[in-house]
Recover the amino acids of this structure.
């Protein structure tokens, strides 16, 4: 049989080819599985996995600059990020309370979803809603909730209500009687009211 080398570039596809060449008459289920798997093998998947591991490491260590540098390098090398890439970055931002950055990340996630580059994932969207609630980004909360509704994804309104009541129960109530509210304050009050109505909060 052919000699196996332990080169980093030696892949499942190489193994399948060796088995196919050496045992052409064999009806082995292992051989069939390897050949089938090799047909779907994409070297880019391995690189994505490696980059994701680095991003996850930096995010867990709360080293977001390094995580984002790794993500930038990933894009420069035309390696497509996947759902795990964005989940890692989201968790890193969330652990540091970087809600503005999460809002920017949501914009990129939306684009990837629209182009079909990543799949719609309920857990990711649920985390986005919770982070936007914690950060007081109610327009973003309603935007993600609307996206979930459009794609028939379950929204746990009870959970979102509890988070709101814990963090923002009296938010802007004192401003309702003021006549000199700024445009930004008026918009935020409107967003809070929209959320309260959607979540069934009296």
């Amino acid at each position: 049989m052919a000699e196996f080398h332990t080169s980093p570039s030696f892949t499942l596809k190489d193994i399948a080819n060796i088995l196919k060449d050496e045992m052409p008459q064999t009806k082995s289920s292992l051989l069939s599985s390897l050949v089938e798997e090799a047909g779907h093998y994409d070297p880019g998947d391995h690189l994505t996995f490696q980059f994701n591991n680095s991003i996850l490491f930096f995010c867990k260590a709360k080293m977001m600059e390094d995580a984002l540098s790794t993500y930038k390098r990933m894009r420069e090398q035309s390696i497509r990020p996947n759902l795990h890439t964005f989940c890692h970055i989201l968790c890193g931002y969330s652990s540091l309370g970087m809600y503005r950055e999460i809002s920017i990340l949501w914009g990129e996630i939306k684009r990837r979803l629209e182009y079909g580059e990543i799949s719609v994932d309920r857990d990711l969207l649920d985390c986005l809603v919770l982070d936007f609630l914690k950060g007081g980004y109610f327009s973003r909360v309603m935007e993600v909730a609307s996206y979930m509704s459009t794609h028939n994804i379950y929204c746990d309104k009870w959970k979102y209500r509890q988070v709101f009541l814990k963090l923002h129960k009296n938010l802007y109530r004192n401003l309702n009687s003021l006549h000199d509210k700024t445009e930004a304050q008026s918009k935020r009050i409107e967003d809070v009211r929209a959320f309260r109505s959607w979540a069934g909060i009296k």
User: Anything to note?
Assistant: The two ends are 74 Å apart (CA to CA).
